[in-house]
Structure formats: structure tokens, C-alpha cells
Specification:
elongated, mainly alpha, 209 residues
Length: 209
């Protein structure tokens, strides 16, 4: 899920013209925390590799490098300024600081899984790095999970479009991947929000007794 302000045709043109740099920069900016279609341009890169216009291993390397570097930038942005910004946003949307603290604690407790697997989840791929910084995830642990997750995600995306791009239209493949990411996001949000909601209900019930 990204702000699809750029058409798939435009991304294909960018990948044709700038090749691996377009893939590297696209996913780097997305993982920094900027909602641009980095995932889509990675799929385009894999598709072009399958068509012989680009080389598979260079596409994979570009996507992995962009993902690793982008998440590192996002981590330090979150580390140094993310929590005050989150508090301000919480006030804007009338979310109590205690609830934000619970979310931060829960993210910290599951930070390894969030950073490693979060790349496959819509929006979490964009914000996992900044959230890891906000949660003060130990940097060596972040580096390991970030690098492993980047390799796993890039391998799946590039290989998927490299092979499946010959069987289905690229537009359909991009849609399938986006839908999978949204379903994963709903499940993650439910897993986080439901326990907080249940605890809040119990606290209100105890207060009313």
C-alpha cells in the first residue's frame, strides 16, 4: 500500500531509463518512511529481468541494498525524533499517551519479527524502520533483522515477478501483491489492537465495580 501517484507505466519507463538506480532509489525512499511505490518498482525490475532487459542478480542486489539502507535511515529518524512526533499525532487524533506507550512496548517485544517480516505487510514495510528507532530496538539486533528481512523480501518479490510475470499481466501481479499486503496489515492491526481493547474494557469494568 503506497500513495499510488505514479502509474505503473511511468515506473516501467523509469526502470527502463535508469535501470538499477531506479529500483535502488525507489525502495530506499520507501523504507526511509516516504510512501512511494518502491515495492511496485521492485516488481517491475524483476519483470524486466525476466524479459531480458535487466539482470536478475543486479535487480536483486539493488532492491536489497535500497531496503537495507532505507530502513537504517528510517531507524535513526525514529530514534532521534519519532517519539515526540508520535505524541503530537496522538494528541491530534485524541489517542492517550498510555495507549501509545503500550503500542511502543508491544512493538519492542516483537521488534525482531516486525522488522524481519514487516516488509511483507502494507505500510509496516514503510514504517518498520522508524518504529524500531522509536521503540529503541538495540541497533545490532536491528541490523541483523533488517539485513535478513531485506534479503528475504527482495528475493521473493524479484523472483516472483521474474517467473510469474511471464504467466500473468504485470498489473495483475502488482494487484495480488498489494492485496496480500493489505490482508497482512489487517491481521497485524487486529493482533495489536484487540488485546489493548480487551484490557481497556476490563479496566473500565473494574473501575465501575
Amino acid at each position: 500500500m503506497t500513495l499510488e501517484l505514479v502509474t505503473l507505466e511511468t515506473l516501467q519507463d523509469l526502470a527502463h531509463e535508469y535501470g538499477y538506480w531506479a529500483i535502488f532509489c525507489g525502495i530506499l525512499l520507501e523504507n526511509t518512511g516516504i510512501p512511494i511505490p518502491g515495492e511496485t518498482i521492485t516488481l517491475v525490475g524483476g519483470f524486466l529481468a525476466g524479459s531480458g532487459d535487466l539482470r536478475y542478480w543486479y535487480v536483486l542486489g539493488s532492491a536489497t541494498a535500497g531496503a537495507v539502507l532505507g530502513d537504517n535511515v528510517g531507524y535513526w529518524i525514529g530514534y532521534w525524533g519519532g517519539w515526540p512526533l508520535m505524541l503530537r499525532l496522538g494528541k491530534l487524533f485524541r489517542i492517550e499517551e498510555a495507549n501509545l506507550e503500550k503500542v511502543r512496548t508491544q512493538f519492542f517485544e516483537n521488534s525482531a519479527k516486525a522488522v524481519f517480516l514487516g516488509r511483507f505487510v502494507a505500510l509496516l514495510r514503510i514504517f518498520a524502520g522508524p518504529l524500531a528507532g522509536i521503540a529503541r530496538m538495540p541497533y545490532p539486533k536491528f541490523l541483523l533483522c533488517n539485513f535478513g528481512g531485506a534479503i528475504a523480501w527482495a528475493s521473493v518479490m524479484v523472483t516472483l515477478s521474474y517467473f510469474v510475470g511471464h504467466l500473468v499481466p504485470l498489473e495483475t501481479l502488482v494487484l495480488w501483491v498489494a492485496q496480500f499486503g493489505v490482508v497482512a496489515l489487517v491481521l497485524v492491526v487486529g493482533a495489536i489492537a484487540l488485546p489493548i481493547w480487551i484490557e481497556s474494557r476490563r479496566a473500565k469494568q473494574h473501575a465501575g465495580e
